[in-house]
Write a structure and sequence with these properties.
The structure holds 2 protein chains of 2 kinds.
Chain A: E1 6-10, H1 15-27, E2 34-41, H2 50-54, E3 62-63, H3 64-67, H4 70-76, H5 82-95, E4 98-105, H6 108-118, E5 123-127, H7 141-149, E6 154-157
Parallel strand pairs in A: 1-2, 1-5, 2-4, 5-6
Antiparallel strand pairs in A: 3-4
Chain B: E1 6-10, H1 15-27, E2 34-41, H2 51-54, E3 61-62, H3 63-66, H4 69-73, H5 81-94, E4 97-104, H6 107-117, E5 122-126, H7 140-148, E6 153-156
Parallel strand pairs in B: 1-2, 1-5, 2-4, 5-6
Antiparallel strand pairs in B: 3-4
Helix pairs in contact in B: 1-5, 6-7
The chains are: A alpha/beta, B alpha/beta.
Protein name (chain B): Universal stress protein A
InterPro entries (chain B): Rossmann-like_a/b/a_fold (IPR014729), Universal_stress_UspA (IPR006015), UspA (IPR006016)
Organism (chain B): Corchorus olitorius
Amino acid sequence: MEGERRIGVAVDFSPSSRNALKWAVDNVVRKGDHLILLTIRPEGMYEGGEMQLWEATGSPFIPSSDFCNPDIMKKYGVKPDPETLDIATTAARQKEVEVLMKIFWGDPREKLCEAIDNIPLSCIIVGNRGLGKLQRVIMGSVSNYVVNHSSCPVTVVKHHD
Amino acid sequence: MTKDRKIGVAVDFSKGSKLALKWAIDNLLDKDDTLFLIHVKPKLSDESRNLLWYATGSPLIPLIEFREKEVMKKYEVDPDPEVLDMVDTASTQKEATIVAKIYWGDPRDKLCEAIADLKLDCMVMGSRGLGTIKRVLIGSVSNHVMVNATCPVTIVKDPSHGH
């Protein structure tokens, strides 16, 4: 049995990423793990001065008490949807895991791969399609890139609509 | 944790697939789950013996059988001792059921068929198998299954491959 694992889930608050999060919680996450929600915001969307500090390394790890607080999240320019938050907080309670969020600014492809190496993550779960305009593709460009370039195991969770 | 899951692992006895198997056992497999080792063999030109299983794949082979060299001889599969060791341990430690199924044909298609046939909850595979092209980041089989599978697919990378 593994020791404490760091399980990453790429979250963009799309239905696909909610699916990925739910799958991760139901199938992978075990007591004692760290579940890390990774959100990537476009570069340059700085709401306040602090963001520039975190451009290189990403935000500090945000505990669940903070990421459920809209005032705090406003500071980061991130608006998590209630359903995603619900899945995360239920997981924290039921599975007895620590759930943290980390926000990066830049290209999601690069930032997710960087996160994998720097945190580091034991594995990452991604949806197959995010909020991109092209909804006809089976697999989005970010998921595809992460699978190809990640240094840790990647699980792609499909969302069928 | 979702109970009684059916977890598939694509096994071609390459190093990559052994890593995938190990990852699945350590990270996904839990008590009461069933682990399906799926092995796809190339279609033989000499059809006489295997015709029976060509279309549907072999019957499900339980662990006690696929550890027997004699049993596996009739399928023309040589059980790899490392793989057997891993699943033996997994079977006892995790209290999970381990079965194998052999298909004949193109691994791309057969793995996707397996997912549907066996109603797998998820599939785990290596990023590159025994193929000759070593420069690609992900082999064509892993890529195909990932795009076309109806269930979540986990690709386990071989750390010796740099990127």
